[in-house]
Design a protein that fits this description.
The complex is a heterodimer of chains A (about 230) and B (about 375). With about 230 residues, chain A is mainly alpha-helical. Chain A has one domain: Orthogonal Bundle (MetI-like fold). Helices cover about 80% and strands about 0% of the residues of chain A. In chain A, helix 4 crosses helix 5. In chain B, the strands form four sheets. A six-stranded mixed sheet of chain B has the order 6-7-8-3-9-10, with helices on both faces. Classes of the chains: A mainly alpha (about 230), B alpha+beta (about 375). The interface between A and B is medium-sized, with 17 and 25 residues.
């Protein structure tokens, strides 16, 4: 118990004193996971919409692949991104392995199926006649889709939260493709793993607190937007 | 009525190789209300979807103001019409925003959007709800919002798919009354789909009958209801007595028809020998009790040229009325008030005389 108590005290001290390394790790985590979530959104929202509204052969199979992708293990993603970005791999010449960009790529692969799958499920829940009604009121196809997104904004924001939650908390892929290099690719989750393995519990607890706090603040903001839209 | 705004030629829509809608020719004139009637599954909604270009027919041509709709840009065409579906399908936003939806799709300036939305909120008596969320409205209020949304875009043609069918009777009656006034005030060309004959009679300038996907008859309500084009239309519009017979005499517009052992009289111009269906509406039949209870005169003088004897097979209460099914060798259905039934002491099995005018008999060639 004393170990935990000491760790908590040290964590508060680190946070209050504004330790530069802690800040650096926190900002990098936010940047990398925020960017990965945004890219996932720009891929997943149109793709999920297309899957929900189109009728084509193989649509059900595509949806099942996307739904499977929602449970993609981060270490598997880390493994395949590593293979592709490895110096001798297909994209090795880009020199992305062990860079923040590699982490963004891996996290995007984790989050995109979440956004796509939840977008498709959300839009399929809407009354299909709503599309006809919107078009019948003179909407262009783009206006119709925007109106449907607006109509489904609450579950779509939940999809965004789920995607951000999935990437800010994953460690396997970030560790494998980022390498947890100090001042370069160290993010909150990989740093927590490292500090724990070194027995530096105070630092690990501090990082854990920050991770939780960050996830809470982001989700609080999105929940606020979501509930504002519900009124 | 002048030139047709919408004109349909040789329309055919199939689903899984089955024809679900077929219409050789249909015109919708400027300023008229065309009521499209038919039972569920007759193809009425399909017709509206085709007219609004939300469904492409397998064959056929639709002209809008003399131009093929398929030569027009889809969105441009749809912005000239307004569609109201059976359910209000409102968006999860305020009543005002819902009414403004179509106007915003057309990218009208904000002040014009506000002016038109406010006008139609007022016209439909829902101005006090303008800030309310659509999800909190009653069925009647929601349908008023849906109508205001369609009227606000000032369409050249308004297409309505059974907009009152999901409402309770008092709400429906009030809304139909208001809708009727708005149509009269705006003179918007309207195609109105319903399976309710009373609504069609009340709102329609002309009636089109769709049965099993086929456009069977188009004409003024009086004509369709009193002179149906075929036995199927007759059955749908409430002509409950259809008697098969053959024209045996025709002189000076008066026709004699042999139906089984009976001879009926009708008016019209049909050649002798022609096989026909004689159709009768139940409200055109008068009943006279016969037998011991009939009184002193078993055959009172009357202008009704047809009189058939039978016995009452069934009596079915029908609101303030009673539907009486009489067996006279063929079934004849009459509709009388409860008080008449009570005064005449009618009961199942009692003998009865059914009389009807020659002019009440509508003939359909077989």
């Amino acid at each position: 118990m004393e170990l935990i108590w000491e760790g908590i005290k040290e964590a508060i001290n680190l946070l209050v004193s504004g330790d530069p390394e802690v800040w650096e790790i926190t900002l990098l985590s936010l940047k990398v996971s925020g960017l990965a979530t945004l890219i996932s959104l720009s891929i997943g929202l149109p793709l999920g919409t297309w899957l929900a509204l189109s009728r084509f052969r193989g649509r059900q199979f595509s949806l099942s692949i996307i739904n499977t992708g929602m449970a993609l293990p981060p270490v598997v993603v880390g493994l395949w991104v590593s293979i592709f970005l490895w110096r001798s791999g297909p994209f090795g010449s880009l020199g992305l392995i062990y860079t923040p960009a590699a982490i963004v790529i891996a996290q995007t692969i984790i989050a995109a199926p979440v956004v796509t799958g939840l977008t498709a499920a959300t839009l399929q829940q809407l009354d299909p006649r709503l599309q006809l009604q919107l078009l019948g009121l003179g909407a262009s196809r783009t206006q119709m889709i925007l109106a449907l997104w607006r109509e489904a904004r609450l579950p779509l924001l939940a999809a965004l939260m789920a995607a951000f939650g999935a990437v800010i908390s994953e460690v396997g892929a970030s560790m494998m493709v980022g390498g947890n290099i100090r001042h370069q690719t160290r993010v909150l989750t990989t740093a927590t793993v490292l500090e724990t393995s070194r027995g530096q519990f105070a630092m690990a607890i501090a990082l854990g607190f920050i991770l939780l706090f960050l996830a809470y603040v982001v989700n609080l903001s999105l929940t606020w937007i979501q509930q504002r839209g519900a009124k | 009525m002048d030139a047709p705004v919408l004109e349909v030629h040789d329309l055919c829509v199939k689903r899984d190789d089955r024809v679900i809608l077929q219409a050789e020719h249909l015109q919708v004139y400027r300023g008229e209300v065309l009521a499209v009637i038919g039972p569920n599954g007759a193809g009425k909604s399909t017709l509206l979807l085709v007219l609004s270009r939300l469904l492409t027919p397998d064959r056929g041509q639709i002209q809008f103001n003399g131009q093929s709709v398929y030569e027009l840009n889809e969105v441009v065409y749809r912005r000239k019409i307004g569609l109201v579906l059976q359910n209000p399908l409102l968006l999860n936003s305020s009543v005002f925003d819902n009414v403004a939806t179509g106007l915003r799709f057309r990218r009208l300036p904000g002040n014009e959007v506000k002016r038109r939305a406010d006008t139609w909120l007022n016209n439909l008596g829902i101005a006090h709800l303008r800030r309310q969320r659509a999800g909190t409205l009653s069925g009647g209020e929601a349908q008023r919002v849906s109508l205001a949304r369609a009227f606000a875009i000032q369409p050249q043609v308004l297409l309505l798919d059974e907009p009152f069918s999901a409402l309770d009777a008092p709400t429906r009656a009030r809304l139909i009354e208001d809708f009727h006034e708005l149509l009269a005030a705006t003179s918007i060309t309207t195609v109105f789909v319903t399976h309710d004959l009373d609504q069609a009679l009340y709102l329609g300038d002309r009636v089109a009958v769709l049965l099993d996907g086929r456009l069977c008859q188009v004409g003024p309500p009086q004509e369709v209801f009193s002179a149906p084009a075929n036995p199927d239309v007759a059955a749908f519009v409430g002509v409950e007595t259809v008697i098969a017979g053959q024209v045996v005499s025709s002189q000076g517009g008066q026709i004699g028809i042999q139906a089984d052992v009976l001879q009926l009289e009708a008016v019209g111009e049909v050649v002798v020998g022609r096989e026909v269906f004689a159709c009768l509406r139940p409200e055109d039949i008068t009943l006279l009790p016969c037998g011991e209870r009939a009184g002193s005169d078993p055959s009172p003088k009357s202008s009704a040229r047809n009189r058939v004897a039978g016995h009452i097979k069934r009596m079915i209460p029908h609101g303030p009325l009673v539907k009486v099914v009489i067996e006279c060798g063929f079934p004849v259905v009459a509709l009388i008030t409860r008080s008449s039934a009570n005064e005449m002491e009618l009961e199942e099995g009692s003998p009865i005389l059914a009389s009807f005018k020659a002019s009440a008999v509508h003939l359909i060639p077989r």
